[in-house]
From TrEMBL:
It comes from the Eukaryota. GO terms for molecular function: S-adenosylmethionine-dependent methyltransferase activity. SUPFAM superfamilies: S-adenosyl-L-methionine-dependent methyltransferases. Pfam families: Methyltransf_11. It comes from Jimgerdemannia flammicorona. Transmembrane segments: none annotated. This is Methyltransferase type 11 domain-containing protein.
Amino acid sequence: MMDMATAYPLSNFVGIDIADDTFPQIIRPANTEFVQENVLNGLPFEDASFDYVFMRFMALAFVKEDWARVVAELCRVVRPGGFIEMVELDMEGKRPGPESKNMFTRLSKGLQARGVDPVIARRIDKLLISAELMDVNKGFGSIPVHWGGKLGEAMADDVRCAMKGLMRFYTTTLHYTVEQVEMMMVQTERESVEHRTYLNFHYAFGQRPLGG
């Protein structure tokens, strides 16, 4: 958002997060504003406040039943003729090794037991269609993990951070020990290079009808 605000100084940008330490508080473009809020409680904006609404990487934040309500709230705050775009990661790696496949299977079952859809990324276009947006477009980009040069290493760093963030889930819900998780991470890194594993990032966007 900071880059966009710098590139488009005549536009105003509002960032929203449930945490209060996500955005810079001192050095930031003058055309930015940051709001701490939970979209599940409703966004603190009037109807039709924005020309463009963008939401990404919320797959672990919502249970399945939340998604329609969240998208409806995004539709509420976007102006008729405005656009909504979503980006989500498909958590199931492509071309996984055996340990990587086992890791995802257990993670998927654990998340689904809590009502979370680990592959919601594959259906975000359907969420926009169900919200009656027009001209919904979808696609995905593939990023290597642990191979493929700088891009693959950057993705590997993100995966490591994600695994650290999920450590408590693995140890309390899935009953791994910390040592087991760390060993699993080492093994999956090796497999990712050997099998040339990659992850798909899905996007979808659509337009609110002018009469909607």
